[in-house]
Amino acid sequence: MTKCHKPLNVLTVQALAILSLLLAAVLPAAAQVPLRDLPKYSFIDYKANHIRFDTVSGSYQHLLRRLQRVDSTGVGNINVLHIGGSHVQAGTLPNRVRRNLLAAFPSMRAGRGMIFPYSAAAKCNNPPDYKVSCREKMELTRNVHKPPAHPLGVCGIAVTAHDTVSTIGITLCDSGVDYATQHIIVFGYSGQGVVPNLSVCTPDGSQRKVQPSYIDPATRRFIFNLSRPVDSFSVVLPCRNGEDFTLTGIYLGNRRSGLTYHSIGVNGAALPDYLERCPHFTQDLRLLRPDLVICGIGINDASGPNFDTAQFHLNYMRLVDSIRSVNPDCAFIFITNNDSYRRVSRRNYHVNHNGPLVREAVNRIARQADGVVWDQFEVMGGLKSMEQWRKAKLAQYDRVHFTRAGYELVADLLSNAILESYNKYLEHQRLTKHKQNSIPAADERYRYISY
User: Per CATH, the architecture of 35-110+258-428 is what?
Assistant: First the structure.
C-alpha cells in the first residue's frame, strides 16, 4: 500500500510564506538601470527628487510595463515627447535626458524623431545635437506671434523660403549616439505647389538628388525613403519667382526599435500658443503618437502678475485631451515651474510668487489627468532658490534660465527620478512574482492524497 501524505497545517503554510519573503530579500534583484552620480549642493532637496504619484497612475504603470517589454525583447518603440518653451528649444535639457535614458537602456536605439531647423532663421537658437546650415536666412513664424503669419503644426514654429536656391543643411552631430536616418518626412506646404527634394551624399562622395517617395497633401507630408542611412542631408526648396514654401518640421526615423525622444520648444511659448495658434498640432501628433509626454510648459504662463490658476488648469486639460485623442494610453509627467524672478528695472529683480501657485495647480492637473509629477520647484530648493543657483553659476543673470551646467543638472535630476521609478517598478514586479511562485495553494500541492 502506498504511504499516505498528511496535509500541511495552516502554521506550516504561514512558515513557508515567511521563508519565501526572507528568500526574496536575499535573491538577486531584477536587472535595474543605473542612476547618474549628482554633484552636491546644499540648496537642492535631493530627498524630494522622485516621480510622485498622488494617486496610482494607470497610464504611467502601463508605460513602465511597455518600457520593460521593449527593453527585454528588443521589439517595439517607446515614443517620448518633451514639450515646453525656451528651456526645451535650447536643447541642452532634453538632449541630456535623452542621452541619459539611452545610456540606461543600451539595447535601445531608434531614430532622432521630430526636429526643427531653428537656426535657418536669424537670431534663432538651435539644439546642440544637430547642426543647421542655411546660406540665406528665412522668414520666421512662431506661435507666440499674434497672429502667426502661417498655419503651424506640432513644432509651433515655421520657416518660409522664397529664394530659388533655398537649402537647409542638417548634420546629426551627437558623437555619443547613432541617429543615422533613412526615413525622412518634411512637413510643410506651398500655395504654388513647390515640392521639396533632398540632397544626400553617396558612398563615392558625390551628391544625389532624391525626390519624395510619397506626398500626402492632406497631412502636408513629403516622405523620403532612402536606400541607406545617412547622418547628413539637405532639404532643397526650389522656389521660383513669386513662389514660397513654409516648412513646419522634419521627422527623422529609421527601422530600429527602441526609444525615440522628441523635443518641441518655442522661446516664450505658453499653453495658449500651442492650443490656439497651431491648427495642425493634433494632426502632426498622430505621426509621433507619444507613449509619454513630459510637460514642461508653464514658466511663461506664470510670468506675469495676473496669473490665473483656473485658466491654467483648463488649458492644460485641453492639451491633455488633444494628446489623448491620438493615444488614449499616453502617460504624462507634469513638471512644476522652476523658481524664477521678474525683472522690474535694469538691475532690479523681484521673486516670482507664482511658483507655488503653479506647483499646486500642476498637482491638481496630474490627479485629474491620471498623470505623475516631477516637482522641480521643490527639488531645486523652493521659493528664492534661483538666486542660489545663480550664485553657484547654475542659472543666468535673468534668474529665469539656467546655464549649460544648470540645465545638465536639471536633466540629471529628472533622469534619475524617471529611472528610479522604473527600478521601483522592476523590484515590485520581482517581489510580486516571487511571492506568487513561492506560496502554493493548500488544495493544490499540499492536498491530502488517498489511494
Answer: 3-Layer(aba) Sandwich (3.40)
